[in-house]
Amino acid sequence: MASEIVVLPGDGIGPEVTRAAVATLQAVGRRYGHDFRFQTHLIGGAAIDATGEPLPAATLAACRQADAILLGAVGGPKWSDPSATVRPEQGLLALRQALGLYANLRPVRPHPVALGASPVKPHLLAGVDLLVVRELTGGLYFGEKQRHADRASDLCEYSVLEIERVLRRAFGFARARRGKLVSVDKANVLETSRLWRETATRIGREEYPDVALDHQLVDSMAMHLIARPRDFDVVVTENLFGDILTDEASLLAGSLGLLPSASLGDGRRGLYEPIHGSAPDIAGRGIANPFATMLSAALLLRHSLGLEEEALAVELAVAAALDSGALTADLAAPGQAVSTQAAADAVLERLEPRCHVAELRD
Ligand SMILES: NC(=O)c1ccc[n+]([C@@H]2O[C@H](COP(=O)([O-])OP(=O)(O)OC[C@H]3O[C@@H](n4cnc5c(N)ncnc54)[C@H](O)[C@@H]3O)[C@@H](O)[C@H]2O)c1
Ligand SMILES: CC(C)[C@H](C(=O)O)[C@@H](O)C(=O)O
Ligand SMILES: [Mg+2]
């Protein structure tokens, strides 16, 4: 049976890295005999330019019908004027919310290349393998917003139900991994965090007594993540804290260009995107690292299509490409960098010999 995949390239480096990820899925389809069908739609700044809206109705309708969605990135200086009433990022937030994608998985498993590229000391990085589960459809991002001439506010609100469902996902992953969960909050200050902590404690005690649960305040967590990253297995936290901690965690991997994500709800349909943004500073130059998006395609194969062997094949091919020294400018030594296309080709060749991005374009 065919799998319908909606592709949302978006803005900045989005189209460059998405092209590599689509090529990855096409190579997997050919190697393993799967019928993957792709439909490309507008989102973000590109959608605002074309239709006036960051998430056109046609895009949302296509996403609702799809088995999975692959996204590049949205946003950029062109649409970032503080007085703008419509923003590219609203399209992404609306999509996550409309599809009920409340659990955002952000795995961090540094490849040996990180030992050279990361500012973190190599002996701290060996054996790091953590999964951040970020709540994605609540908190400050989605609370009521008010703007007056001399003040502004964003409401941070969480219901017990919203906390419970993402915590159950995180506990489930912890149980299947090394049995350790750290719940990150700011319970010394925020009421939402006190509710979060109480709920985590109750669910842990009643439903997951076999998982070792710890609580950590977000400010000290920002330090522990870098100082002792090996100690963490699964980390669960609210929307904004998860956003910030995972960009920080990219330092463990050596580059923001290496971290993928999967956004999941209760069904199988998911949204897959790198954790990085549209990188306006390097967009259009063919130098972006495509691996975070190619690894997001691996998560798509695993979580939405149930193709574990194929997902692993992509992950191994990316690791082998890194081993071979196919490093873009964010990872390479000066003068040694390869282009986005060459890095992507180094993966594709390992998935399907003699296969290149340029050949897969159509
Ligand atoms: N999911 C998304 O669509 C998403 C995520 C984050 C930021 N954004 C948007 O992106 C725009 C730019 O944001 P920003 O500059 O703060 O963050 P960013 O993630 O776009 O870039 C931060 C830094 O990392 C580098 N970088 C990012 N991805 C890279 C890659 N694949 N290869 C090599 N280098 C890479 C960039 O060049 C830049 O120096 C903003 O409009 C923001 O809202 C979108
Ligand atoms: C673009 C922005 C809305 C988004 C977020 O904050 O969720 C991004 O930073 C991310 O990490 O996916
Ligand atoms: Mg972010």
TrEMBL record:
Keywords assigned: Amino-acid biosynthesis, Branched-chain amino acid biosynthesis, Cytoplasm, Leucine biosynthesis, Magnesium, Manganese, Metal-binding, NAD, Oxidoreductase
Residue ranges occupied by any Isopropylmalate dehydrogenase-like domain in the UniProt entry: 4-347
Pathway of action: Amino-acid biosynthesis; L-leucine biosynthesis; L-leucine from 3-methyl-2-oxobutanoate: step 3/4
EC identifiers of the protein: 1.1.1.85
Subcellular localization, as worded in the UniProt entry: Cytoplasm
BP GO terms, sorted: L-leucine biosynthetic process
Sequence positions that bind substrate: R96, R106, R134, D219
Pfam families, per database record: Iso_dh (PF00180)
Site features described as Important for catalysis, chain residue numbers: Y141, K186
Record's cofactor remark: Binds 1 Mg(2+) or Mn(2+) ion per subunit.
Binding site for NAD(+): 76-89, 277-289
Keyword DNA-binding on entry: no
Reactions it catalyzes: (2R,3S)-3-isopropylmalate + NAD(+) = 4-methyl-2-oxopentanoate + CO2 + NADH
Domain of life: Bacteria
Family matches, as PROSITE patterns: IDH_IMDH
Binding site for Mg(2+): D219, D243, D247
Family label: Belongs to the isocitrate and isopropylmalate dehydrogenases family. LeuB type 1 subfamily.
Biological role: Catalyzes the oxidation of 3-carboxy-2-hydroxy-4-methylpentanoate (3-isopropylmalate) to 3-carboxy-4-methyl-2-oxopentanoate. The product decarboxylates to 4-methyl-2 oxopentanoate.
Annotated HAMAP family: LeuB_type1 (MF_01033)
PANTHER family: 3-ISOPROPYLMALATE DEHYDROGENASE
SUBUNIT field: Homodimer.
Record's protein name: 3-isopropylmalate dehydrogenase
Lineage of origin: Bacteria, Pseudomonadati, Pseudomonadota, Gammaproteobacteria, Lysobacterales
